[in-house]
Amino acid sequence: EFLQKMQKQKGPDNTRDLLDMNLGGGDAEPFDPGFSDAQLQRTETSAVLAQERDQEVTQIVQSVNDLAQVMKDLSVLVIDQGTVLDCIDYNCEKVRTDIEQGLQEVIKAEESQKKSRMVMCIMLLAVMVVFMTIVVIIKKLAGF
């Protein structure tokens, strides 16, 4: 009878009939197929594996969230560093421009200094001193 009931259990429509049938006739206890030990063990193993997968998925989600936060922080740092580099680049360009302007001013100052009247007067006085020295030396040699 048990083998027949097991064969009927394989059919999709006979599952409810098995639960209603009795093992040994009308006076015996109702038949409860339940789970076999192997089925219970597989169910427990599946539950443990499902729990482990759930924990792993939770860890992966946490890792992805952490990675997203790191990427946000990194993008903020990149933006800040870009701003600093732009500021440094601007200051370097400004210094270069200021140096070029300063060089032009130095060249103009040198030219104007060479052309200035003061330099001309000093040169004239130096020539006159040399001339007067020569006159004095000639006068002494000639006896005047």
From TrEMBL:
Presence of keyword Transmembrane helix: yes
Entry keywords, A to Z: Coiled coil, Golgi apparatus, Membrane, Protein transport, Transmembrane, Transmembrane helix, Transport
Compositional bias (Basic and acidic residues): 10-19
GO process terms (BP): intracellular protein transport; vesicle docking; vesicle fusion
Subcellular location as annotated: Golgi apparatus membrane
Segments for region (Disordered): 1-36
Membrane topology: Single-pass type IV membrane protein
Ranges that cross the membrane: 118-138
The keyword Coiled coil appears for this protein: yes
Residue ranges annotated for the T-SNARE coiled-coil homology domain, each copy included: 47-109
CDD domains: SNARE_syntaxin16
Family as reported in the entry's similarity comment: Belongs to the syntaxin family.
PANTHER family attached to this UniProt entry: SYNTAXIN, SYNTAXIN-16
Name under which the protein is recorded: t-SNARE coiled-coil homology domain-containing protein
Organism encoding this protein: Cymbomonas tetramitiformis
